[in-house]
Each structure stands twice: as C-alpha cells, then as structure tokens.
Amino acid sequence: MLESARSRLKAWTVAGIGTAAAIAVAGVLGAFGARHEPLPVLAPASRIDTGEWLLRPLKAYVTTEKYAYGTLLKPGGKALVLELEMTNRTAKSTKDYFDVLQASPATVDPATKPFIVLTRDSTMSPELHPGMPERMAYIWQLPDGAAAPASFGLTVIRKTYKPRDNLYGLPGWFNPTPAGTLTIAVGAGPDSGDIQP
C-alpha cells in the first residue's frame, strides 16, 4: 500500500513538472510570437510588388489648382498628389487598388480617401488591364490651412492569391497585410521631376 502511494506521488510529481514545463515553454513561445518586427523600408524609386500590382512611385507634389486631373478642390484648398506607374499583374481587368496605399496619419486624415485618376485622360478609378503599365495619380485633399509637407509616409499593402477561398471556393486576392513603408519627398508642383532611381 505504501509502495503504491509512493508511485502515485511520483507520477503526480512528474506530471506536475511536465505540465509546468509545457506552460512555461508555451508562454515563452507566445511572448516571442507577439513581438512585432518593424516593416521593411522600401526605396521610393524602386518597383514594389504587392501581389496584384507592380508599383513604381514617380513623383509627389502639392497643388492649389482648382482642378487636379479633373477632381474639383474646395476654394482655397490644397491637394497632395502622388503619381505612380501601376501594372496589373492579374489575368483580368480590375480596379482593386483603393487600399494598396495608406497615407500616414501625420500628413493626411486617415478617414480621407484619395481620388484615384488615370493621368492620360483624367478618368476616375478606371479598370486597369493586365500587363499594361498606366500612370495613375492618388489625390488626397489636405485639411484647411495645412502647410505643404516636405515629405510624406505611406504603408504599402500586399495581398496573397488563393486559387480557392475558404468561403466560396473561388479564386481571388486575400489577406491584405502591410508589405513595407515608403517615404516620398514632396516637390514644388506638377512640373517637379520624377523620382530618379
């Protein structure tokens, strides 16, 4: 009887130590998993792969013109314009580019969505065709009285292609995640030169 009590006590002790070790290991792994790595800093003149899109920033500037590529500004208003080359890397025409760039809250109100315009004919939010690079302009209206920034930051969002999604079993681009950050110098006006590689 005493022998079986000792073996039970030994078994409980071993089980307790094993459980404590498992909890400690899980806690340590969880702590390391919760650590957030800083996002990569992307070069302003580089080509940026976002999955669906290949982007190449061209230039940024502030304008006070009443019409910026056909978009009407408020009287006395200013707009921050980012021109970039966008290439659709998918197999069909799409305009799934509204959230590919997120401007820094230090420069633009996060609630303000940009106007997105095809520069060659001022078409608002057109579908872009596969494999055809197009020059686009993202236009953010700046708050009243805001000074023109010397530079502004962007977060670039990447999506992943899945041949079958979990809900409908259809192909698509999913799981938007930040791919990196980008800081772009703001030029004097529409005639400021393109960013040099």
Question: How are the SSEs placed, and which strands pair?
Answer:
Layout: H1 2-34, E1 48-49, E2 53-63, E3 67-68, E4 71-72, E5 79-88, E6 101-103, E7 115-118, E8 123-124, E9 134-141, E10 151-162, E11 172-185
Question: Largest beta sheet, briefly?
Answer: 6 strands, antiparallel
Indicate the structural class. Answer: alpha+beta
Tell me the total number of β-strands. Answer: 11
Shape: elongated
Give the overall pLDDT as a whole number: 86
Uncertain stretches: none
Strand ordering within the main sheet = 1-2-5-9-7-8
CA-CA gap between termini: 83 Å
Q: Strand-and-helix sequence, N→C?
A: HEEEEEEEEEEE
Any overview of this molecule?
The strands form 3 sheets. The chain has a 6-stranded antiparallel β-sheet, with no helix packed on it. It is of the alpha+beta class. The protein is built from 1 helix and 11 strands, in the order αβββββββββββ. The longest helix has 33 residues, at 2-34.
